[in-house]
Write a structure and sequence with these properties.
The chain has 371 residues and is mainly β. It is 11% helix and 36% strand. It has three domains: 55 residues, no CATH class; 123 residues, Spermadhesin, CUB domain (Jelly Rolls, Sandwich), CATH 2.60.120.290; 159 residues, Jelly Rolls (Sandwich), CATH 2.60.120. The chain has three helices and 24 strands. The strands form four sheets. Strands 1, 2, 3, 4, 6, 8, 10 and 12 form an eight-stranded mixed sheet that branches. Strands 13-15-23-19-21-18 form a six-stranded mixed sheet, with no helix packed on it. The longest helix is centred in the N-terminal third of the chain and has 27 residues. It binds 2-acetamido-2-deoxy-beta-D-glucopyranose (3 copies).
């Protein structure tokens, strides 16, 4: 009998020990998705969480976070896990959702020269697209022809061509589709010891995700109202300079919200549309931002935007191409809602062009009465 009790005791202690060891093992070593039984053991999934500095992270075990070269911050999954923020820099790659690609020493300005590449590897076969958020992207301005020659950001490996960027693009974003299993590579070439910085968030998007952008849309907006700005939008620092980038040709798509049938485009302010021609002349004669400085149709041959089939009050606007240095408000009922941006290879004669900043507002469908 005594031996029997000893035996039972031994078993209980042994089992508790074993459970403890299993728990330690799980929180240290195993992928966190294993369902766990028994007292004191909790299962958790590698869900999204918010880590230090409000950055997006993944809930990992400490061990997983270390292995992923992440930075562990706040606890998650009832503090069994840690919110792990993944940051990568030059020459590195990532197969983890919500990875931040930063310049060396970010947020301190980086003045090195060379090519800095970051490789995006698909998490799994269910992923079709990435959203690239340029949280911070400050590179050298283009030359006076609009070419990115001092610094250039190039994205390769995706399913379609992505325009080359430089200058100030903080707050901008892009969607790039994967081309099969090929990695998408972001390369930033820098020359000259000027200060620049970037912090680029890469989100991987499942093929069946409702927020996935339609294929081919470089930018995608999903609200009823918003603002679309061209890359490197702004006023050039020097007379003769341009902020408009050369060789752009891309589509901006706006999700059609239920109950809305059209979209109205308008300039954000009188200086917010300088797409072709000499902006300084238009500023000088006070025509900037007015219909006098706006150009249409066949007069828009080098740099322009396209808004399909706009409803125009003035028949002489009978066109869907717009350029020049002013933009009169237009509404389009063509679907899908899309704005196409085109620039040619040389912005030399387009002095002081800012590019554009346009507000959009979706317009409600007419009420159909059946009487
Ligand atoms: C800007 O760079 C492009 C590409 O190298 C070159 O063709 C162009 O001549 C340059 N423009 C000026 C004004 O130097
Ligand atoms: C990546 O994270 C975002 C949230 O930041 C989420 O919406 C998306 O579904 C995640 N992608 C995958 C493939 O899990
Ligand atoms: C709109 O797009 C943002 C950015 O991808 C996303 O986080 C959000 O969930 C989307 N909203 C809707 C209603 O689709």
């Amino acid at each position: 009998m005594r031996y029997f009790f000893h035996f039972i005791c031994f078993c209980i202690i042994h089992t508790l020990c074993l459970l403890f060891v299993i728990k330690m093992f799980i929180s240290e070593f195993l992928p966190a998705v294993i369902p766990v039984f028994g007292v004191g053991l909790v299962r958790f999934v590698n869900g999204l969480c918010t880590g230090y500095g409000n950055l997006a992270g993944t809930c990992y075990t400490r061990r997983q976070c270390r292995n992923a070269n992440g930075v562990a911050s706040t606890g998650c999954a009832r503090s069994i896990g840690v919110c792990c923020v993944i940051t990568r820099t030059c020459g590195q790659s990532s197969q983890i959702n919500n990875t931040y690609f930063v310049s060396p020493g970010f947020p301190t300005a980086y003045s090195g020269a060379g090519v800095c590449t970051f490789t995006i590897q698909k998490i799994d076969a269910d992923v079709c697209q990435v959203r690239i958020d340029f949280l911070t992207l400050r590179l050298a301005q283009p030359n006076t022809s609009g070419s990115c020659i001092t610094d250039a950001l190039v994205i390769t490996g995706g399913a379609s061509t992505v325009p080359i960027l430089c200058g100030e693009n903080s707050g901008q974003h892009m969607y790039v589709d994967f081309n099969g299993n090929t990695n998408i590579v972001i390369s930033i070439g820098t020359t000259g010891a000027i200060g620049r910085a970037w912090n680029i968030k890469v989100t991987q998007i499942n093929c069946n995700c409702p927020t996935k952008a339609p294929s081919g849309c470089l930018q995608y907006f999903n609200r009823t109202t918003g603002t679309v700005t061209s890359f490197n939008y702004g006023l050039a620092a020097t007379q003769g300079g341009t902020r408009q980038l050369a060789n752009q040709n891309y589509g901006v798509c706006i999700a059609m919200i239920r109950g809305y049938c059209g979209i109205t485009w308008s300039q954000t302010n009188t200086l917010s549309f300088g797409v072709s021609g000499d902006t300084y002349t238009a500023i000088g004669d006070n025509s900037v931002g007015t219909i006098t400085a706006e150009m249409f149709g066949v007069n828009c041959l080098t740099d322009f935007i396209v808004i399909p089939s706009p409803v125009l009050t003035n028949p002489s606007f009978n066109t869907d191409r717009f350029c020049g240095n002013g933009f009169a408000t237009v509404t389009s009922n063509s679907k899908p809602f899309v704005l196409t941006v085109v620039t040619d290879a040389n912005e030399l004669n387009d002095m002081g062009n800012v590019g554009f900043s346009l507000n959009y507002a979706q317009t409600r469908c007419p009420v159909i009465t059946t009487t």
